Amino acid sequence: MSPRKSRHNKKEEITESMEDYLEAILEIEAETGCPEVRVSDIARKLKVTRPSVVGMIKHLVEHELVDHDHYGAVTKTERGRKIAQEVMKRHMVLRRFLEEVLGLDAEVAEEDACKMEHTLSDKAIERFIALEEFRSMGPDDGRLKGESFRKYLKERKS
Amino acid sequence: MSPRKSRHNKKEEITESMEDYLEAILEIEAETGCPEVRVSDIARKLKVTRPSVVGMIKHLVEHELVDHDHYGAVTKTERGRKIAQEVMKRHMVLRRFLEEVLGLDAEVAEEDACKMEHTLSDKAIERFIALEEFRSMGPDDGRLKGESFRKYLKERKS
DNA sequence: TGACATTGTTAGGTTATCCTACTATATTGG
DNA sequence: CCAATATAGTAGGATAACCTAACAATGTCA
After folding, report:
1. Of A20, A59, A66, A141, which one's alpha carbon is 20 to 30 angstroms from that of A135?
2. Among partner residues A114, A120, A137, which is closest to B112 by beta-carbon distance?
3. Which residues, in sequence order, are CB contacts of A157 under 8 Å at separation 6+?
């Protein structure tokens, strides 16, 4: 990523970190089945300290992306939920590409998807989605499918 | 990108920014044909101010990635050159994938490659390289080639 | 019910990167 | 050759993200 991407941070800009926190909140909700997310859970998930989470939550509240009761639960606003879902969608598409097409280990695919999900342009994401659609059309009959590529990878190793 | 990737910045860690500067220096050398690169050129290329460049050059000198005469030219050390070339190589592989497989415009492909080049794992890069090798094996005879996917993209649009 | 553990918050630092405003040097054209 | 212009560098500051240490609220269970 370019380090100069953050130069023009207008008030309304959503940073990568903010997206990460929103996504984490969504994931925790999904895991616990409860829409009340706690600071500690977020800290654990993102591997940061609780004060870091508190600071970011404040920031997200200012941007009206989450609500937060003092000493209480964090919940996403409508806008926050939408953004979290978009990020998550990007994440999944990329993770599947990395795993199914490039044949990366689940763990590596997961990590790399985390990095790509914030920085890629909408156009690129669109294309990854289109590629997935294309791949899902019928069996691996010899078009742009991961199977053929993964076979090549295996052969190449020996 | 995860914002928490920079938490463990040991002295020897090379940041995305550092990579960007090294890459820019390499590009300017290639463009001018001259290994003497000036602060202004780097500033222009990376769209930052000259003081920012001076600050980063200092940092790169400390890390023995470039040499710099006061009020003079910037040149890469052996280590700096190696890193710059690696980053450039990643950049090219990714750019070609985005353009040739996903069919993105040259400009968008360029931008997205810039973002991906620093963050992707070595394993992912390896696979992008392997994919390129695979794609270069003969014509688009129906394996993991961009041509078929791009045809699909065109048909889908209508 | 009240002491202790857990969780949330505040205060105050650190680091990396960028900026603006200003000063210092170098180069070049008259 | 030297003054004007362009280029390089310094000083000082902003911001976004992180951290540790210390304190405050909550909640649980003997």
Report:
1. A20
2. A120
3. none
- Distance CA B111 to C1' C17 in A: 20
pLDDT of residue A101: 85
Would you tell me how many other CB atoms lie within 10 Å of the CB of residue B50?
Answer: 13
Contact A153 B120 (CB under 8 A): no
Nearest-CA distance B41 → chain A (Å):
16
Q: What is the pLDDT of residues B5-44, one digit of tens each?
A: 333 333 468 999 999 999 999 999 999 998 899 999 999 9
Nearest to A127 by CA among A94, A81, A78, A83: A94
d(CA B25, CA B121): 23
Answer whether A65's CB lies under 8 Å from A76's CB.
yes
Is this prediction's pTM over 0.85? Answer: yes
Condensed to tens digits (0 to 9), the pLDDT of residues B64-97 reads: 999 999 999 999 999 999 999 999 999 999 999 9
CB contacts of B130 in chain A (<8 Å) are 149, 152-153, 156
CB atoms within 10 A of CB A39: 19
Determine the distance between B128 (CA) and D1 (C1') in angstroms. 60
Looking across all nucleic acid strands, the nucleotide with the smallest C1' to CA distance from residue B17 is: C17
